[in-house]
Design a protein that fits this description.
single chain, about 500 residues, alpha+beta, 9 helices, about 35% helix, globular
């Protein structure tokens, strides 16, 4: 019996050892194979990253690029070094350069995944972090001399990726009057092959900045509970569409001689973009659930904007002209003005002028619409709101005189404005409190008088009407006809009416 048992145990151990050796051989073979592919994978990823950087910075005054500095390749691991360069106005007066080191474990079974019981095969696991340089040494010191920015990326055999990006907690003096305390931020990020789809979710617990204003009064800004979320897909034209969300639970700003505390609760920002054929649309929504002063709530706010029927090829063509010609010209003009020299003339080639004209005509032919769907502020006693819709269309010629061009450009303009006098009283009351006034009756009387004066001026100028406790103004334009506060008139009559009011205001002054 013992012999049989011993024989069985020896065979079992042999089978188990064989399985372990087989797994080891497969892993080693996979690691060697992966090691030979790492450089091509990195170069492809960097090319994609640079393409996305270029797209993201279109319209901004700056450029950025990511490059592979070196790669040390071994059987089971590799070490890569990257350089991220940024220059231009958005990066400050001097170009910046950040260095990263990347420790790459070859697949299919990287050791770090084995010990964390993640046994799904991957091509590689990347552990990257920011390196210390003269530019980043203060950032390292604030993070107790460890890399303040690091992350992990798992690369699948289908070229999909998933991982985390982490900014470590910081506590540091920025200068002799300013300090920063940061809880850290962590992002979970995943992407399909060639980053066709990207998802990201992040959270920051708190950030506290203490400094002084120009008049040396202490200023303190606190943010708590920041959540970030993105769900994006690469469009046919190479840019990303989808949803981005930012939610902030609470913020407080302490300022002024009286150290007033202005608070915001439940701030939410959502933007969404879509693509349909050659047309793009988008919207942005902002909400503040509660606005408070010194702990006392007094209002809430909303803002919603949208853009429709944006011709994508025309927009990209115009952006190319802007980036290659207009953006550099703006920089030259600004430098000349600062030096007290004549501003140089903008010169476009015939081909560029044709591209600009064609792009504008194509853009307008699509009938783009810009809308301020809702701008509102609500207090305890009233709510003010505004909305605007502007439809554009292609004119007979973009070379028409300005007045004719504007008429033909605008297919529809609709504006509605409502200002609540009780809301104005609430706002003026808060302003008086910020200014340091303490007499409650005086504050109330002054706020009411100021709101009444505003209403009387608006109604007296015939630019608005009184509807109960609301001051309202409405404008509708289409087909060369204006309707203003219920009165119909031609464009010439409306322009003359408005100019007479402003001329009258100037004479009163």
């Amino acid at each position: 019996q013992r012999t049989l048992n011993g024989s069985f145990m020896n065979k079992s151990a042999g089978v188990l050892l064989g399985i372990v050796v087989a797994i080891g051989a497969i892993s080693a073979g996979g690691a060697w194979y992966t090691g030979t592919k790492i450089e091509s994978v990195l170069n492809t990823s960097l090319a994609d990253a640079n393409q996305q950087l270029q797209a993201a910075l279109v319209g901004h005054k700056g450029t950025a690029s990511l490059e592979l500095v070196s790669l040390e390749r071994h059987v089971f691991s590799s070490t890569a070094h990257y350089r991220l360069k940024g220059e231009g106005e958005m990066f400050g007066e001097e170009p910046i350069e950040l260095l990263f080191v990347d420790h790459i474990e070859h697949g299919p079974l990287p050791f770090s995944r084995l010990v964390s019981l993640k046994w799904l095969p991957v091509m590689a696991t990347s552990h990257y972090e920011l390196e210390k340089t003269p530019l980043t040494e203060k950032w390292f010191a604030a993070a107790k001399d460890v890399s303040p920015l690091k992350g992990v990326v798992n690369i699948g055999y289908d070229n999909s990726t998933n991982g985390t990006l982490e900014m470590l907690p910081l506590e540091t003096a920025l200068d002799d009057k300013s300090s920063l305390k940061f809880s850290g931020l962590k992002l979970d990020v995943s992407a399909s092959a060639q980053a066709q789809k990207v998802k990201a979710d992040g959270y920051m617990d708190s950030l506290k900045l203490t400094t002084v204003s120009e008049d040396q009064a202490p200023v303190q800004v606190e943010l708590n509970g920041l959540t970030l979320a993105s769900n994006l897909s690469k469009s046919t034209y190479g840019y990303y569409t989808g949803e981005n969300t930012v939610v902030l639970t609470n913020s407080q700003t302490t300022f002024g001689a009286k150290q007033s505390v202005l608070g915001f609760k439940n701030f939410e920002m959502k933007n969404q973009t879509e693509e349909s054929g050659t047309s793009a649309s988008g919207r942005a929504d902002y909400k503040v659930g509660e606005v408070s002063l010194n702990g006392k709530a007094f209002g809430s706010a909303q803002l919603a904007m949208s853009l429709k029927n944006l011709d994508i090829p025309a927009t990209m063509s115009l952006m190319q002209i802007y980036q290659s010609k207009l953006q550099p010209y703006e920089q030259l003009a600004a430098e000349a003005a600062e030096a007290g020299q004549p501003v140089p003339e903008l010169k476009l080639t015939e081909a560029e002028e044709a591209q600009l004209k064609t792009g504008l005509e194509q853009l307008l032919a699509a009938g783009p619409q810009v809308a301020l769907e809702n701008l509102s502020f609500k207090t305890t006693n009233g709510e003010s709101r505004a909305n605007l819709v502007l439809d554009l269309t292609k004119p007979q010629s973009i070379e028409l005189p300005t007045d004719q061009l504007i008429r033909q450009l605008i297919a529809l303009l609709d504006i509605n404005l409502q200002v609540s006098k009780p809301m104005l009283v609430d706002v003026f009351t808060v302003q008086s409190q910020i200014d340091g006034q303490t007499d409650a009756k005086l504050i109330a009387d002054q706020a009411t008088a100021t709101a009444d004066m505003f209403g009387s001026m608006a109604v007296g100028s015939q630019l608005a009407k009184l509807d109960g406790s609301n001051i309202v103004s409405k404008l509708h334009y289409a087909n060369n006809q204006v309707e203003f506060n219920g009165q119909k008139m031609t464009v010439e009559e409306f322009v003359g009416f408005v100019m007479s009011k402003f001329a009258g205001a100037g004479e009163v002054q």
